[in-house]
Design a protein that fits this description.
Helices cover about 30% and strands about 25% of the residues. With about 425 residues, the chain is α+β, with helices and mostly antiparallel strands. It has 4 domains: about 1-90, Rossmann fold; about 125-180, 2-Layer Sandwich (Dna Ligase, domain 1), CATH 3.30.1490.20; about 190-320, D-amino Acid Aminotransferase, Chain A, domain 1, CATH 3.30.470; about 330-425, Phosphoribosylglycinamide synthetase, C-terminal domain (Glycinamide Ribonucleotide Synthetase, Chain A, domain 4). α7 (about 125-135) runs antiparallel to α8. The longest helix is centred in the middle third of the chain and has 21 residues, at about 240-260. The chain starts with a strand and ends with a helix. The model has no long low-confidence stretch (mean pLDDT about 95). The structure holds adenosine monophosphate and glycine. Glycine binds near residues 151, 286 and 291.
Length: about 425
């Protein structure tokens, strides 16, 4: 069948790479795609991923049998609903179900109602009320803009001053636009973070291998938050016991809750977790695959991704066996110097094939093709991924690939997977 991937980042390159391995895949399309995806898919950049009518017309014209929607924006914009309405199978939650990511207030209220472990919180639309709550609770405390803010609407305030400044910035200065007209203020959770992605058809749930992202820009988890500077899988902090608790206390109740609320959830559900001394607690849910978690999770999937996704869409996931490799995988993100603040674009990238020749996978995130070369075109430029028999082997192989790739002012963290490596000592 013909398959369409919506999106053009590292996550979507990885999805397209895995989908291309299926015997069920005839032709692969991507909107907009990227130069890395162009090696396996026909990329169409003229159509906006927010224009549901244009997306549907394209899919009808190309006789698409399965659409995979990568990013949160088209999901919260009802892309899956639009495809489904004309009878095209689409992997991902409906607009109503995607609100689990689109509104933090909705997601927190849902967790409270159904007893899913998460940080204690209050929701505010009035800045004065928010300020007095923060003064009463004290620091550390976490301030979050309600709506989508490209991962930047969360401030973990270590002092009262920082917390008050965050309220001013989000609610009064509208730093995140209308996403900040409501804020969620919550207890600061202490522990180690992990991501658990799961396939679901609305009833059956199949967790993927656990992973851990590195959100800060610099080594030692210093510097500003980014979209993610690297990942590894599996994450040893998610022990078999923790995984069983997450399944029972988080995944099963939330999928049942969504069904109960008339928001049946089909697709990939991403649980961002804090593993505290009391057990796992939900930091957030995302309505999609993680980026760059996908870059390490899907290379460990041994089953046919097209088959698994079709089973989710068709409500028959319980009949499918999903197999995972016992290996480990590591992704090192190569970013443009300066990211997540201002950075330069248009620098020529060399060594991509050399990195692949040492056995690494190179997923494009922010690149463009220009005059026969590949150039930088975004903050996160590439995800260099390696598999190994264990984390140590995968780390060594990923950095061997990184060493082959060059562009002006390339920046990457040198300590990806440090928490897993420390556990080996
Ligand atoms: P989010 O965009 O919700 O994933 O939040 C971004 C980052 O902020 C998370 O990955 C955590 O590192 C941190 N964070 C969010 N909520 C909390 C919390 N309640 N306690 C501690 N850290 C948090
Ligand atoms: N890696 C974090 C996210 O995808 O939201």
């Amino acid at each position: 069948m013909n398959i369409l991937v919506i999106g053009g980042g590292g996550r979507e390159h990885t999805l397209a790479w895995k989908l291309s391995q299926s015997t069920q895949t005839d032709k692969l399309y991507a909107i907009p795609g990227n130069p890395g995806m162009a090696e396996i898919a026909e990329c169409v950049s003229e159509i906006s991923i927010s224009d549901n009518d244009a997306l549907v017309s394209f899919a009808l014209e190309k006789k698409i049998g399965l659409v995979v929607v990568g990013p949160e924006v088209p999901l919260t914009n009802g892309a899956v609903d639009a495809f489904t309405k004309v009878g095209i199978k689409a992997f991902g939650p409906t607009k109503l179900a995607a609100e689990i990511e689109g509104s933090k207030a909705f997601s927190k209220d849902l967790m409270k109602k159904y007893g899913i472990p998460t940080a204690r919180y209050e929701i505010f639309t009035d800045a004065d009320a928010a300020r007095s709550y923060v003064e009463q609770e004290g620091a550390p405390i976490v301030i979050k803009a309600d709506g989508l803010a490209a991962g930047k609407g969360v401030i973990v305030a270590m002092t009262l001053e920082e917390a008050l400044a965050a309220i001013d910035e989000i609610m009064c200065d509208k730093a995140f636009g209308s996403a900040g007209s409501r804020v969620v203020i919550e207890e600061c959770l202490i522990g180690e973070e992990a991501s658990l992605l799961a396939f679901t058809d609305g009833t059956a749930i199949v967790p993927m291998v656990s992973s851990q992202d590195h959100k800060r820009a610099f080594d030692g988890d210093e510097g500003p938050n980014t979209g993610g500077m690297g990942t590894y899988a599996p994450a040893p902090v998610v022990t078999p016991d923790i995984l069983a608790r997450v399944q029972k206390e988080v995944l099963e109740p939330v999928i049942a809750a969504m069904q109960q609320e008339g928001r049946r959830y089909q697709g990939c559900l991403y649980a961002g977790l804090m593993i505290t001394t009391e057990g796992p607690k939900v930091i957030e849910f995302n309505a999609r695959f993680g980026d760059p978690e996908t870059q390490v999770v899907l290379p460990l999937l041994e089953s046919d991704l097209v088959e698994v996704m079709l089973a989710c869409v068709e409500g028959r996931l319980k009949d499918v066996e999903v197999q995972w490799s016992k290996e480990a995988a590591v992704c090192v993100v190569m970013a443009a110097g300066g990211y997540p603040k201002a950075y330069h674009k248009g620098d020529v990238i060399t060594g991509l094939h050399e990195a692949e020749s040492v056995g690494d996978l190179v997923f494009h995130a922010g690149t463009a093709a220009r005059d026969g070369s590949i150039v930088t075109a975004g903050g996160r430029v590439l995800g260099v991924v390696a598999k190994g028999s264990d984390i140590r082997a995968a780390v060594a192989k990923a950095y061997a690939g990184v060493a082959k790739i060059h562009f002006s002012q390339a920046h990457y963290r040198k300590d990806i997977a440090h928490r897993a490596l420390e556990r080996l000592h």
